[in-house]
Amino acid sequence: MGEIMKHPDELYPLMKLMLSAKRVEKKTSVWQLQPHWVFCYATLRKVSRSFALVIQQLPSNLRDVVCVYYLVLRALDTVEDDTSLTTEVRVPILKDFYCHLHDPEWHFSCGTMAFKVLMDQFHHVSTAFLELDTDYQEVIKDITKRMGEGMAKFLCKEVGTIDDYNEYCHYAAGLCGLGLSKLFYASGREDLAPESLSISMGLFLQKISIIRDYLEDINEVPKCRMFWPRQIWSKYVNKLEDFKYEENSVKAVQCLNEMVTNVLLHVEDCLVYMSNLRDPSIFQICAIPLVINMGNLMMYYNNVEIFKGVVEMRRGLCAKIIDQTRTMADVYGAFFDFCCIMQSKVDRDDPNATSTLKRLEEILKTCRDSGTLINQRKSYTFSHQPNYNIPVLFVIYIYFTCVECQSETVPQGRGKTVYTPPSGYTEYVVVIVVYV
């Protein structure tokens, strides 16, 4: 609540997002007569974080496809993530996972919370998969096979070199990006993107996720998970877990900054990929996670809190990004803003400062050269105070107090929750705001 009152410009987009989520729920009521689709869309909202909203705004011929694709890969990831299972158990499941897509009876118990439900009732996902056109099925099956084989490989192999790191991220997310591009192409709504650009999109997102999840992965029970490449972290400490300790905080931040600089290598490919998209809904499903994650990367840079807990973008700022990200000019503008902020955070004594500044300047130049930056545009760097009056802010304050007290949250796994506003509250407050 305090963050919202500090950033009143985020109130309106936050409420628009809530209304949009409720409209999506009503729109998906058509599936209520088909139990497998009821399960897929209900589970999507529980395991996909903010991605669920943009998926459900896709055109009808792609919405079901991307929903199933996401759940299949999330299930595959759940098997990989479950360290309570031995490697000997997980490896064959990962390698053969694609075969089970054609078996509407198959399921495998693993994971926790919403992810366990997904795995225990995976037959619903398989049933939905079998209703898709064969072109879509072949793409999903091929990507699942290749990802499963790659994940199995790295259950038995350390992420030692930067090449290993890139290879692991290729399997864990690069192939996911490639699959999405092929699904977009199969739908007839996009040209087939170059493979290297599709994979770069996935690597960008996966590397940010690996940075964010340092503490959770290193504290994983019964066995820690280590995806930061030894080639990078061994310059600073003897063991990766040493970054948790206060006495190593300077070295931890220096290593973190090198990891962030490595992510920046993929930004220009991402911008090229985005600039080639034509369909507005497909553009949004790619642009929103991209911009939010660039904002997260800016927050992670030079931030020791990564080694102490979860560092995430404000909910209100996420809503603002979703509301404002419509065109390629919006993407260039957001990347320009976040790179400017990151540039201001660079410590000249950091051993990676020169490399970081060089990468940032190259991205800033790309954004400037796009010709889309204008002085009047809305910026994430500076807060624009809206023309709210005191009665409106007071109503908003009461509204959010009610929401915080009465809303439900659904466990996400890996330290995340999905926010669900109480029925009726959003419409009530919007009416009051408009009236005032």
UniProtKB/TrEMBL annotation:
Transmembrane residue ranges: none
Pfam families: SQS_PSY
PANTHER family on file: FARNESYL-DIPHOSPHATE FARNESYLTRANSFERASE (PTHR11626), SQUALENE SYNTHASE-LIKE (PTHR11626:SF4)
Sequence similarity: Belongs to the phytoene/squalene synthase family.
NCBIfam families per UniProt: squal_synth (TIGR01559)
Protein's recorded name: Squalene synthase
Lineage: Eukaryota, Viridiplantae, Streptophyta, Embryophyta, Tracheophyta
